[in-house]
UniProtKB/TrEMBL annotation:
Function as written in the Swiss-Prot or TrEMBL entry: Extracellular matrix protein that plays a role in epidermal differentiation and is required for epidermal adhesion during embryonic development.
Organism in which the protein naturally occurs: Gopherus evgoodei
PANTHER family given in the database record: FRAS1-RELATED EXTRACELLULAR MATRIX PROTEIN 1, MATRIX PROTEIN, PUTATIVE-RELATED
Gene that this sequence comes from: FREM1
Lineage: superkingdom: Eukaryota
Alphabetized GO MF terms: carbohydrate binding; metal ion binding
Compartments where located: Secreted, Extracellular space, Extracellular matrix, Basement membrane
Similarity comment: family membership: Belongs to the FRAS1 family.
GO cellular component term of the entry, any: basement membrane
InterPro entries: C-type_lectin-like (IPR001304), C-type_lectin-like/link_sf (IPR016186), CalX-like_sf (IPR038081), Calx_beta (IPR003644), CSPG_rpt (IPR039005), CTDL_fold (IPR016187), FRAS1_ECM (IPR051561)
Main location, first listed in the record: secreted
Keyword annotations: Basement membrane, Calcium, Cell adhesion, Developmental protein, Disulfide bond, Extracellular matrix, Glycoprotein, Lectin, Metal-binding, Repeat, Secreted, Signal
Protein name per its UniProtKB record: FRAS1-related extracellular matrix protein 1
Organism classification: Eukaryota, Metazoa, Chordata, Craniata, Vertebrata
SUPFAM superfamilies the record matches: C-type lectin-like, CalX-like
């Protein structure tokens, strides 16, 4: 149906024609009809949803949140008369504070109106208004005519100014064998968790500052590499996996991260340690005689040993037959308890008394639990016929075919073994040298009480009691003679001048604690002049001015190794720079360990940072705050050579500087200045504001600006 009012409005103005006649005369005429519209409809508040914004910000008053409608009034006449202004902010017109107490619906439609919060701790703000069409009084809200002002509500959310907190940060060490044959460690909320009361878990982000060095992170749901970061929700869902790279023979890794929220709040950088253990055979070949009885295979676990681990053992018959030529324990699973790093797996060799060919079988390690397999996963055992003429006293010991006596003069102090050991013990690491004086020690007693003189004719005397200890057995093997002694007394090797010298003599000292010391010497007197060292003040007064000769120079490769000097009856240890007298205090220092990833040299630990090149000031701050140490100092030329090699022969910052007092150079860690290695005179350069030292080509020092310029690697150090 057509609205008559609209039809009339469309036809306006209207005209009427008429005729007037008296019968004689007729007159035509017209008159105009005018219609005047009357506004009788009230404006309606059709939207009043309010605003929500973060404190200190601005939000538009759009038609989506505030709108008046009136069928017979244009938007420029629909007006909001303000009865009360906002208390904690301002209404703005085109970005400026609204000066008048009204605005129109057209202003709202044009996006000219906005609310700006003034900050503070308020949570609710509002303004009240009366709507009008400038003709009628009153307006309609929810179908009812209203004359009183209504409120427009503004909700203010507080800005999140607190960073997420780390509530769990533990070393991840539960390594698993994956379906594809790789090994991996799942990083979950058990080891890494952050909490932020103002942020959802999927918005708590762990930003990776430095990824793992030897493996990589993977998202198991997508299969993609993780390079930027991951969320707390990902950790809760157990989808973050660290994959061990088998090409690196390491047992630990780490990643550096910083936890953040969407507003940019971030906690201090943290490091997540990843550690695992590795299980393998100690040796891969055994040759034993048929009458050896019992053969013990040593299986070792290295790396992280705080948790338990398991390994399965499989026996493969090659030419030997299980049950006929040898028997094994029914259990094929070996358990490493927490802290344990060595297990023995016994095999009983069957002696049948028959002449027969040599027999071979293999022992294979597989299916590790909470550990990875090392490279030596298989041991080949060869059983020699005891009547075939091949067996000797050596073979019947059940050891391998390597020379039992060894030829090494240099001995490393043990860095610790899971197997219980006596205090002050040392382990052999054979390094063949062309030396005339040779000593091999395996888990020996306190070595400073063990002295060595001319071994061509020798005897053992118990220290401080005057007794002569006679050997319990004598073993002759070609030109070698091994004397075995049993007991717990302290022994000293003394010269026996009662007879002529023999060509060579070997002595093996074994006490009831399974300690063994083997000694070899020859009659040569020449010693290569490869390295020299002066005796420490503790040496005998008649020898204080003696310069000692060593078979090899002390280099970083020989760090930790021991040398016994016959002429002075002392042990010396290589610290990577020079030979130092070895004492029980030296032993205590050598048993200490550097943090994971750090390198030990002398009495300090060193860490090279190459992934983030920085200025000297930033490097000094990072060493102090993140690595709890200081920029490295240099004490000698040999020390500088070691650091230059440690850095990969690339420039790096050290701690030498004169920032406090120009021209007065000092070390960042406060150590005394005992050595410098300038390329140019620092006196001229310091006047130019170059107050910090960069090690450059061939380890030479160059003064540089501490704050700006090219950024470089740096070396941090800390006391052991």
């Amino acid at each position: 149906m057509v609205n008559q009012e609209h039809m009339l409005k469309a036809a306006l103005p209207l005209f009427a024609r008429f005729i007037i006649s008296n019968g004689l005369k007729t007159k035509h005429g017209t008159f105009e009809i005018m219609l005047e519209t009357v506004d009788q409809a009230l404006p309606i508040v059709s939207r009043n949803k309010g605003l929500r914004l973060v404190e200190g910000t601005m939000a538009l008053l759009s038609p989506d949140v505030l709108q008046l409608s009136d069928a017979d009034t244009s938007s420029k006449n629909l007006t909001f008369l303000l009865a009360q202004l906002p208390q904690y902010g301002h209404l703005c017109y085109r970005g400026a504070v609204l000066l008048q107490h009204n605005f129109t619906q057209q202003d709202v439609d044009n996006m000219d109106m906005a609310y700006r919060h003034g900050g503070g701790g308020s949570q609710i703000d509002r303004f009240t208004f009366v709507a009008t069409d400038r003709t009628n009084e009153g307006f309609i809200v929810d179908g009812k005519v209203q004359m009183e002002p209504v409120a427009f509500t503004i909700q203010v959310d507080h800005l999140d100014k607190t960073a997420p907190k780390i509530v769990h940060l533990h070393c991840s060490s539960d390594v698993e064998l994956l379906k594809n044959g790789n090994y991996g460690i799942y990083i979950t909320a058990r080891s890494l968790k952050a909490y932020d009361p103002d942020t959802e878990e999927d918005q708590v982000i762990f930003k990776i500052l430095r990824g793992p060095r030897y493996g990589y992170l993977e998202n198991i749901t997508t299969g993609g590499f993780i390079q930027e970061g991951f969320s707390q929700k990902d950790l809760n869902g157990k989808i973050i996996l660290y994959v061990v790279n088998p090409s690196w023979e390491v047992n630990s890794d780490s990643l550096e991260f910083q936890v953040t929220d969407p507003t940019g709040n971030s906690a201090a950088p943290q490091t997540l340690e990843l550690r695992w253990s590795q299980i393998e055979m100690q040796q891969t070949e055994y040759t034993v005689c048929e009458n050896v009885g019992m053969l013990s295979l040593k299986i070792t676990r290295s790396g992280h040993s705080i948790d338990s681990a398991f390994i399965a053992v499989k026996v493969i018959e090659v030419s030997a037959t299980l049950g006929k030529d040898f028997t094994v324990t029914p259990s094929k699973l070996i358990q490493f308890d927490p802290g344990m790093s060595t297990k023995m797996w016994n095999i009983a060799i069957t002696y049948d008394g028959l002449e027969e060919d040599d027999e071979v079988f293999e022992v294979v390690l597989n299916s590790p639990v909470n550990a990875i397999l090392g490279t030596r996963t298989k041991a080949v055992v060869k059983i020699l016929d005891s009547k075939g003429g091949q067996c000797s006293s050596f073979h019947s010991s059940g050891q391998n075919k390597h020379n039992l006596w060894g030829t090494g003069t240099l001995l490393p102090v043990s860095s610790g073994s899971s197997s219980p050991s006596n205090p002050g013990t040392v382990h052999l690491e054979g390094i063949p040298l062309s030396s005339s004086k040779e000593i091999m020690v395996q888990r020996g007693d306190v070595l400073q009480e063990f002295s060595l003189v001319n071994l061509s004719r020798m005897r053992l005397r118990a220290i401080r009691n005057g007794k002569i200890v006679h050997p319990s057995s004598v073993l002759r093997n070609g030109t070698n003679v091994a004397f075995k002694y049993h007991g717990l007394v302290s022994l000293r090797v003394e010269a026996d001048t009662s007879s002529a010298n023999a060509n060579k003599a070997n002595k093996s000292i074994i006490n009831q604690g399974q300690t063994k010391i083997s000694v070899i010497s020859s009659r040569k007197t020449e010693v290569p002049q490869a390295d020299k060292a002066e005796l420490m003040p503790e040496s005998h007064s008649s020898q204080q001015d003696l310069v000692l000769s060593f078979p090899k120079s002390c280099t970083p490769d020989l760090e930790g190794l021991l040398h016994f000097e016959e002429s002075t009856q002392n042990l010396f240890q290589c610290d990577g720079i020079s030979w130092k007298l070895w004492t029980s205090k030296s032993k205590d220092v050598s048993m200490k360990k550097c943090p994971s990833g750090w390198s030990h040299h002398g009495s300090r630990c060193y860490f090279l940072i190459t992934d983030q090149k920085v200025s000297w000031n930033a490097a000094a701050r990072a060493c102090r705050e993140h690595y709890l140490g200081s920029l490295a100092s240099v004490i000698s030329k040999q020390h500088m050579q070691w650091l230059w090699g440690f850095s990969g022969r690339k420039p790096f910052w050290i701690g030498f500087n004169d920032q406090v007092s120009p021209g007065h150079w000092e070390w960042h860690g406060g150590e005394p200045v005992t050595f410098t290695n300038w390329r140019r005179s620092p006196s001229r350069l310091s006047k130019q504001g170059k107050n910090c030292v960069l090690v450059q080509r061939r380890g030479k020092w160059q003064a540089k600006d501490c704050r700006k310029g090219t950024k470089h690697n740096y070396v941090c150090s800390r006391k052991l």
